[in-house]
Specification:
By secondary structure, the protein is an all-alpha fold. It is built from eight helices and no strands. The chain is elongated, with a radius of gyration of 23 Å.
Length: 293
């Protein structure tokens, strides 16, 4: 590896930000059309193809941007001052993700603690509740929609509990991978990091199984009232973050196999570890507030 650059490195112009913006735009358009078509006709429509193209563009952007960053780092263009900037940037990024999920948890809190009691006649709203939804019962999970459709709630036992154990275990394995890197124990690092990736993939497979169970056996769908909305919104976005985190760890894993990182210089690994712990904490909150309470 080349010696560290003594000056603050300013990278050249990159095409990856605009490529990523295009990818995210196509994902938003495709996902919006897909959800609309499924709810109206029961068929996927053209939105699935736009969604797929968007995801492919995002994958190309991620690996292209990672490649450029890795090349710059291995060429010795980065220095300690730039490392501080990277740490600040990653910290603010995770904070923005915390606020992202806080908004969704806020929507869940509003629906459960304010809207449901209000519709049930709380706070002197008995007359309004009688007009809006006469047969309404102020209970949660709200498994009956105004149209009369009834679904079943997703319990915390079974797949959700197994997935919780999987993610908690993955936090332990990524921690031991980190300690192995700091102690320059490459075998421990490789083994624990690889196990973390397998656990992340297992979580995603079981979440797909959970969604199939929800749709086919419980009748719990995205259009199943506010309970279905919040359930799939929170768990779906979390699943997307687990997917991104797993891809992040896979890139780090191949870098480890290539001999990258040292006990004193491994922020890319550290940032992946931070992100994975964040994903685990969000799931614990989901498990408590969405599945148990």
């Amino acid at each position: 590896m080349a010696e560290q650059n003594s000056h603050y490195y300013v990278p050249a112009q990159s095409p990856w930000p605009i490529v990523g913006a295009i990818g995210f735009f196509l994902v938003a358009v495709g996902a919006g059309n897909l959800v609309a078509q499924l709810s109206q006709t029961g068929e996927a429509g053209w939105g699935r193809f736009i969604l797929l193209v968007g995801f492919i563009i995002l994958l190309v952007m991620m690996f292209g941007w990672f490649k450029d960053q890795i090349s710059e780092s291995r060429a010795g263009l980065h220095n300690a001052q730039l490392g501080v900037s990277y740490r600040q940037g990653m910290s603010w990024f995770i904070f923005s993700e915390v606020m992202f999920f806080a908004a969704f948890f806020g929507a869940l809190f509003y629906a459960r603690m304010i809207s449901v009691p209000w519709l049930g006649g709380a706070s002197n709203n008995a007359m309004t509740a009688e007009v809006l939804w006469p047969s309404f019962e102020a209970i949660w999970p709200l498994t009956t929609t105004p149209g009369g459709t009834t679904t079943q709630a997703m319990g915390y036992w079974g797949l959700p509990l197994i997935n919780t154990i999987i993610l908690l275990t993955s936090s332990i394995t990524i921690h031991f991978a980190h300690t192995g890197l700091e102690a320059n124990k490459r075998k421990q690092l490789t083994l624990m990091l690889g196990l973390t990736i397998l656990l992340g993939m297992s979580f995603l497979v079981l979440q797909v199984e959970e969604y199939i169970h929800a749709y086919q056996d419980l009748g719990l769908k995205l259009d199943s009232g506010v309970y279905g909305n919040t359930f799939f919104l929170l768990t779906g976005f979390h699943g997307m973050h687990v997917t991104l985190g797993t891809l992040f760890l896979i890139v780090i894993f191949f870098r480890v196999l290539a001999g990258h990182f040292s006990p004193d210089n491994h922020f890319a690994f550290q940032s992946a570890s931070w992100y994975w712990h964040f994903v685990d904490v969000v799931w614990l909150c989901l498990f408590v507030f969405v599945y148990i309470i």
